Batch of 4 targets.
Target 1
Amino acid sequence: MDVKILLLLAIVGNTEICKGCRILALYPLPKQSHFMMINQLLKGLALKGHQVDLITVNTLPKSHSNYMQIMKLPDNANPIFSRYENIKNLHYNFSMMSWMGYLRCQKMEHPEFLNLARNPPKAPPYDVIIVQDAKPITSEAFWSRGTDYTRFTDSYTKKNVPDNVLIMSWIPQEKVLQHPNVKVFIMHAGLLGTQESIYYRVPMLCVPLAFDQWSNANNYVSKKIAVKVDLASVTQTKIDEALNEMLTNPIYRENIRKYSQLFRDRPQTAIDTANYWIEYVKRNGKNSLRSATMDFTWWQIYLLDVPDRNH
C-alpha cells in the first residue's frame, strides 16, 4: 500500500514537468530537402507528447493526432534563383537573401496567416514557435567521371547524357549515402548534406555555391575529409583529378571514419536534445537562449574596440 501511495504522489508531483508544449512550426520557404529534416524533428516532438501545429508550403505526408498541418501557404518561388548563370553572378548572395526575405514577408501577408497572428488560440496558447531560418535554394546534380560537368548543370535534361549518369528530380540522398559502394559524395558543402556525409562515413568533393558553403568546404579540406573545386573554374580535368586524389589516398576515408565516430558519440539522441532545449525555452523564457551579441554593434562583434596588445 505504501509503495502505491508513493508511486501516485510521484506521478502527481511530476505532472507539470511532463506536460507537453503547444508548438507552432512556421516553415514558409519551399525547400523540400530541409522540410524532410524538420518533419522528422516535429514528428519526434509529437512523440514526446507535444502538440505540434505546422504552417508550410509543403504538404505534410501524414498527420497525427498531435501533429498536423493547420495551413498550407502558396508556393510562389521564383526558379530563376536556382539557375547556374545566377549562381556565377557576384551579386547572387545579396539577391538571394533579398528575395528570400521578401518571399517570407509576402507569405506572412497571407490572409489565413494574418488571421491566426491576430487571433492566436488561447485554450491552450502556443508555448513555443519554431521558425525556419533562411538559407539559399540551390540546384544539385550528380555527374560522373569522364563527363563534362557544365553540360547539364544549366538545365535538368536527359539529352546527351551518358548511360552511366542517372538524373532524377529527387534522389533519396540518405539511402544512397548508406550504400557500401558509395566512395565520394559530390556536394555543395551545405550543413545538412555534411551531417549525413559524416554520419555515413563518405568523404566529400565540395563545389560550394553560396553563403557559408565556402567556409564549410575550407574547414572540411583542412580536416582532410574533403577536396574542394571552385565552381567558377571547374573543368572535367579538375573534377577527375579531385576524384583520383580521394579514391587513391586512404587519408580521406580514415579521417571521415574518425569524425563519424565523434559525431555519433553523444549523450542524447538528436530528438532528445532538441526536445530538451525546446522545453528549456518554455521553462526559462523567450530570452533564455538569446545571444548577447544581438545587442552589440558591428565593431563590437568583430572586436574592433578591443586593443591588440601584440602591436
Target 2
Amino acid sequence: MKKIVSVVMAAVMVCMSTAGCSGQKPAETGSSQTAAGSESASPEGMAGAALGSVEHPEEQTYLWCSYESTDDFMLMVYEGFEDCGKMLGVKTAHVGSSQNDLTEYINTVERAISMEPDGIAVHVFNADAYVDVINKAMDGGIPVITTGPDSPASKRICNVGVENYEAGAFGAERLGEALNGTGKVLVLTRAGQNNSELRVQGFKETLAEKYPDIEVISEVSVTAEIADQASKTAAALTANPDVDAVFCSLGIQAVGASQGCDQVGRSDIVVFGFDRNPAQLELVKQGKVMGSIAQGCYNMGWWACLGLYIEHNNLLGDRNFPTFISAGVSYIDQSNVDKEIEESNARIAGAK
C-alpha cells in the first residue's frame, strides 16, 4: 500500500510543481493557476517523507456532497472518491440528496460540516449559492474542493473538473462537421451554472471562428427537469422552425431536447449532448442524439479525495495548491455507446 501511495504522491508532486495538472483559462476558475515554489528535494523523496509523516490515516474521514445522488454521473464520481480513499486507507462517505431543490443541496453541505470531517468535496449546483456554505467550512478549518461545476468566488482550495470552454469548442467542431458548415442552432443552457456558461461561450466563439455560416439563433435557459427542457425546446422550435440542431450544455438536457423535438415532429434535428446518463446513452444508441461529451467523472472523485488528503495533512508544505485539476473528457457516439451502457448498468445495479 505505501509503495503505491508513494508513487501516486510522487506523480502529484511533479504535477503540482509544474502547471497544476492542466493548462486552464483564467476565466475557468475565476483566477490564474498558482505556481508552486522551488523544491529542495526530489518529488519522490518529498512524497516518501510526506507519506511517512501521516500517522493513522484510518482515523481520517473525507466526505463528498452532491445533488441528484442516485444519478449515474454522481455514482461514478463517488466511485473514484471512494477508491482513492481505500487506497489511502481513509474513511469516505457520500452525503447527497435526490430532491430537486437548491436549498436541500446546500443543506447537504451543512450536514457534512456538522459531521466534522477532515475534508469535504462539493459538487456545485449554483456557483453563487454555494459561496457562503463553502466559506463556512473553510473558515472552520475544513478544506473544500469542488468537483465538476465550480464556485470560484468562494474560498474553495481547488476545482477538479473539465476545461469547459474547450469542451464547448470541441462540441462546436463536431456539430459543425455534422451540419456541413451551415445551419441554425438552438442552445440549451442553465443560468447561474458556470460550467454551462463556459461551454456555451466556447461553443459560440468556435462556431464564429471556424463555422461562420452556422448561426446560434436562440439560447434558452432550462432547469434540471426533463419536462421543462422538453417544453422549452418545443416552444423554441415552434418559434424558430428553421433550426437545424440543438446544442445541450449539460447532462440530461439532450433527453429533454429529444422529447421536445418529438413533440413538434422534428425528427430531422441534430441533437448534441453532454455527459453519460443512461437515458441519454440509449438515445445515442438509437441515433436520436448524435453524440455526447462525457466528463471524467471517476477522475473527478479520485483527484478530489487525494487533494483533500494532501491539503489536510499539509503534504505540500509551503508550496501552493493548484486552483484547477483537469479530469479530462471523452466522446461517446454509436461506435462506443454499447460499452458505456454496459458499464452504466453495472454501476446502477451495484448501488441498489
Target 3
Amino acid sequence: MDGVEILDLEEGLGESGEINNLCLVGKVLNSKPLNVVAITNICTSAWKTRAPFSVVPWSTNIFLFRFEEIEDKNEILKEGPWSMMNSLMVLQPLTEGAAVSDLDFSYCPFWVQIHGLPVEKMTRTNAEIIGRRFGKLLAVETSPDGFLLGRSFLRVRVEVKLSDPLPKGFWLRRKFESGNDHWISYRYEKLSDFCYACGRIGHDNRGCKFVQRSEESSGYGPELRTGRVRKSAIPIEEIKQQVDAAEIRVAQLLSKRPVNQSNKDDARVWFVG
C-alpha cells in the first residue's frame, strides 16, 4: 500500500519458536469481562504446575499463559477442558508467526463417554466410527483385543464445534426385527455451564438467542455433564490426523450407515451386524 512501510523484524532472543512453545492462549466464553487476578487464582489452584506461570490479559476475556516448563503447558492441554467461574475456557497453543488474533477458538476438545451400547458393540472400531461423527477425532481408549470392556461405556476425545448444539446421542437399530430402537447417550467430561434451551456452550437459557422461551423442551439438561474419570491402566490411542487406509475404511463404513433426524435433531445412526 502506498505510504505504508513493510518491515522485517527480528525473531527475538533464544531459539526460534522457544517462546511460542511455552505459551497458551485462553478465551473464556463469558459475556461479562473477567478479572485477570481471579483467572490467575483459579488457574494456580487448579493446575498444580511444576513451575510458576504468568497470566497476561490480552483483550476482553482472552489471556496469555506463559509457562517455564513445556511439560506444564502440555499437561494443561492434555487435561482440558477447563472452566473459569463455570464458563468454558478454550485453550490454543501459539504457532510460529501467528498473532493471538489469528487463533481459532471455535472448537474445543472434550472426552465424551458413550453410554448404553450392547456389549458386542463396545469395540475399538465402533468407538472410532462414533467419534468421527463429531468431526475431528483426537483419541480413543483401546485394548489389545479390540473389545473395550474396561468400563461400562466407550470413551473418545473429539473436537466439539462450539457454534453447534451439543450432540446428545443417537438411536441404535436392533439387530433383530422385533426389537425397538435403543437410545445411546453421550456425556461430556468437565463440561461447563451451557444452554439447556439450544444445547450450545457459551451462554445460558436467559441469554439464548436461538430458542424462544415459549418453545417446547429441547431435551437438554445436566445429564450431559459428567466429571473426568479416574486415571487407569486403560491405554489411550492418539489418532493420526492424516488420511490413511484405516481412515478410508472408517469413512466407507460411515457411508453405509444412514443418518436420519428425529424431532430434536438427534442423529439416528444404525449399526447393523
Target 4
Amino acid sequence: MVPCLPHPGGVCSKTGPLISPPRDPPCSSPPSAASSFDFRTFDPEGVIFYGDTGPDDDWFVLALRRGKPIMQIHNTLTNVTVSGGQRLNDGQWHQITVRNEGHYVMLLVDGDDQLTLSHVSHPIVNQPAPQMRIGVGGLFILPNELLVPLNPALDGCIRRWDWMNTSQEWHEGASLHDRDAKACFTTVQRGSFFRGNGGAVFALSDLPSGLSPTDGTWLLSVQLRIRAGPQLSSLVAVLGFKQRPVLRLTLQHTDLTAELSNQTVLLLPLPEGGCLDSPLLLRLTPSSFSLGLGATEISKPTPKAEFESLQQLWLNNLGSLVVGGESGEEKSQEGHFFHGCLSEIRVQDHELDFDEAQYRSDSISAHSCPGSLEGKVDEEDGP
C-alpha cells in the first residue's frame, strides 16, 4: 500500500503494518469510533488495514477479496467474517469509512452503507480503552490466524486518512523517508510497474508444463505487452543449473534480443526512438525459435540439443523463470533490471500474477502502473 504524500499520521506499504500509537500512556477513549480515508487500487486481494487492542483477543481486519471488501472480527463476543458490496479494485478513488456505533460495525463506501455487522463489538465511544494499534497494508498477526485466509500484500494507495477521529499523536512504525515508502501516482493504469532495481522469480513447478494435450509435444510460449523507454535490461530469463540463464529476452537500447543457451540469438530492431509499446511474442518449438514485435517477426531453426535441454529443465521443474531481471535479488548494477510497465505477461498461455511469485522485489507494484512513466504524484498530496 502506498500513501499520497505528505500527510500526517503515518505511512503504509505493501508488506507490513507501519502505524502504531504511542505506548505510554495507553490510548484514552476516542471521541468518535470512526476511521476514514480515500482508497484506490486495481489489486483484487490484500489487507487495507488492521486494528487491535490485543492480538490474541480483540482484532479487526478490513481487506479485499475478489475485489470486494471483506471484514473479519475476532473478539470475546464473536468470530465473524462478512464480505460483499461493490468491487473496489477499479482504479478509482473511493472514500472508505469504518464506524463503530454501539454493538454495530459498519463499512461505508462513498457515503453508502456496504456492510453492517450487529452484536459483534463492545461500544468503544466514551469507554476506557487500552492501547490501540493500527497497521495499514499489513497485519500484526500471522496470515494463518485470519478467519478467512488471504494474501495480505496489497498494491494500493491511500490519502486523507483520519484514524479514530482522534487528535492524539500516533507513533509511526516506519518513516516516509524509508526506502520502501512510495508516493502515489497522479493517474494509474492496470499492469505491473518495475522501478529498475528488482525482479520477480517464479518456480517452474508453479507454471504450466506446455505439453500438448493431443500429441504430447512440448513448446514454450511467452507473451508480453510492455511500455518502456530505451534501456539495457532483462525482460525474461529462464535459469537452470547454478542459476545460469538458458533462455533470455533482453532490451538492448535500440534492439530486442532473444538468446537460447548463449548460442542461438534473435535480434529485432525496436521502433525509431527505442520506445516500446507493442505486444511481444517469444516462441520455441522443436522446429523454430521465433521472436515477434507487433506485426514484425524473425525466426531461426531450433537446434535440437538446445531445445531438448530447455525442455528437460522445464518439464522436470529444475529451474526458475525470472521477470524483470536475470535474478530477483536487488543489486546496484545499473541497467540490469527492467524499468517500465508490464501491462501483461502470459507464460504457456497462463497470465502471471506477481502476488504468486516465489520472490518479488518490494520495489515492484504488482497491479498498477503510472499513467505516465515519469511517475508523478498528486500535486495536492506531495512532490
